[in-house]
Task: structure prediction
Amino acid sequence: MSRLAVPKTYKLYIGGAFPRSESGRTYEVLSASGGFLANAAKASRKDARDAVVAARAAVGGWAGATAYNRGQVLYRIAELLEGRRAQFVAEIEDAEGATRAAASAQVDEAIDRWVWYAGWADKFAQVTGNANPVAGPYFNISVPEPTGVVAIVAPQDTSLLGLVSAVAPALVAGNAVVVVASERFPLSAISLAEVLATSDVPKGVVNVLTGSPAEITPWLASHADVNAIDLVGASALDWVDLEISAADTLKRVLRPEQGPDAAAPALGRITAFTETKTVWHTKSMR
Amino acid sequence: MSFLEYAPAPESTAVLNLRDQYGLFIDGEFVDGRGTPFQTISPATEARIATVSNANEADVADAVAAARRAYERTWSRMSGRDRGKYLFRIARLVQERARELAVAESLDNGKPIKESRDVDVPLVAAWFFYYAGWADKLDHAGLGANPRALGVAAQVIPWNFPLLMLAWKIAPALAAGNTVVLKPAETTPLTALIFAEILQQADLPAGVVNIITGAGDTGAALVSHEGVDKVAFTGSTGVGRAIAKQIAGTDKKATLELGGKAANIVFDDAPIDQAIEGIVNGIFFNQGHVCCAGSRLLVQENIHDEVVDRLKSRLSTLRLGDPLDKNTDIGAINSREQLERIRELSDVGVAEGAERWSAPCEIPENGFWYAPTIFTGVQTSSRIAREEIFGPVLSVLTFRTPAEAIAKANNTPYGLSAGIWSDKGSRILAVADQLRAGVIWANTFNRFDPASPFGGYKESGYGREGGRHGLAAYLAPASIGGQGALPRAASHGAVASPSETSTDAAAEPKARRTRATRTTKASTKGSKR
Result:
């Protein structure tokens, strides 16, 4: 006897909660074969601004956590994702029309990238910081600090891997993130949000918007409380205009990348969203 | 005659060997510019010093072409060891001609000779000496083996530290293997032109450094020239913003060193004598024409009156006048335009309810001058607490708790520098952690060193100058494929090599990463080279 399935309502993830879009809008998400999968929330400008507020509120605590703690929290995401591996594989098979093997490989790689970045949390400062031998009686040290609130347009051609590859490095240093998911493959992004919500990631540290990147991204690019914008998945958008808009508040900008391995693991993706702080302190015996 | 009065002790200008007219320094030679020449004057006397060429767009194109040729034919092929030796030569020549450069700087800029002689010029030599040693050690700069130069660097510098900013820009660029077109500020071209003569003495290959003089439109033409690979700018946030827009969608990398409104936080346990000297140095050094100046004094409420009284008494001993006099503490404001901006904002401070106090000092008849000024009773919302005045004007605010000090210090779109004065080391380090600024001085202020990275958070710009970080701003990792992942403000270097990061788990075939395909809009910007 077949059982009638219970489908899930996919909503946004803002400030640790799962609200619908304040606009009440949704859009149809179709499978690779054209079948109906779900109605995803279509985020509005207001949702984007709410997400930035949530991210700003979360930065202090996340950046203030010890690097060891951030590393453990990121590693725990990998642990939880591993436990829900089958769900993500099935979702990706449905959405992308991928083979079981390809979907499995994508999930495995996403998990492994959380592990890779988790390990960086208490090391990148040693690699990119510096003790500076200045010509005078001063203790002088340069350390990387998080830039603040980072907006991300996730790579658009995968459900999970691109999203994880862009979000994880921004979190390592202690930034809070507002990410616009793949427009065509948004469902795994919300499932990942469920993983984040039940892991140890503080609320507001990651905020996930689904909908139209072309509609949402300009509001993030011009938002004065966003410190940096990663346009990795924005190659189909008018990203030069986005960059010009970001220049109004001198945001740090990462350019679009394309291909199946966009946002490949790199220390540079961590340091792109850090600021070098140099502290001078007098030395004296008195 | 009180103990504060001294006989005049002006530094002799006989050491100078100035020309009456200066051309543009392009491809190793001085050539006439095709724009309308302009005069550079002494801001202390308004007397003409020399006539300077004005580079128009064609001149800019010539300079970029010369830099490109030098890059491709000479500089990029030269060993790092030899590039370094040229930089060492330049450092030595600067030391040899230090007095001449200091006098010229004080004459053209208006800063006291004690500062140009003891701060600017020694740091210029130090900057070249420091980066000279990097030229053959680029593998250790943090970008992996065999990092590559970016190509032609367009560098636009301000008038507050003319020769020092030149050194901050040129030394790392050349060490990394780039060639340079540099534009000094319109009001302070003199030492850059003397520096061009030093390059001739050093026998630096033609075209490796080109120096073009002119105003804002010359700078804009240079920054937007399609043959430029890297833009380095120090100046106002407004111009920095315009540059960021101008180069959006291009392959140009940028370092922007912009404005500031630094908080100088004084706790009640601070070593008060040192703090007073530090506050004075923080805002009145170089007439306050310092992007990282400590222009907002945040003083703990219970010592406010004492600090203000002692400041006033100390400021009353400062000597304002002839920049070339060795006893001068406060020199001339760099230009009439800047003087008017200082006056305007200062009047706004009064209109907004703050109390103004200026040191009693005689203002010379000619030239541009502004007496050291303190505002008390300043509200955080006041324009003099928010906008960069870039002059000898200090706004005093108070706080009660460290948390309040941090909140007020960070309440600005800028984030260049900050100061902390306290005897308690643990508090200094905790407060330093919380301040959103790129340079924090604890129990000191306005210290600079070629080994120490300098640069801002937020709207004070991006990228770092100085140290290994400053070098990385002129380099890219060896692998072209990884370039797309590099930040626009490539200041922190370090992108892991693909072999280090590849994972074999993915069954999907991994296409070799290629540069992002540009939209049509970007590609119409034209091909380079």
User: Anything to note?
Assistant: The longest helix of chain A spans residues 100-120. Chain A is about 45% helix and 20% strand.
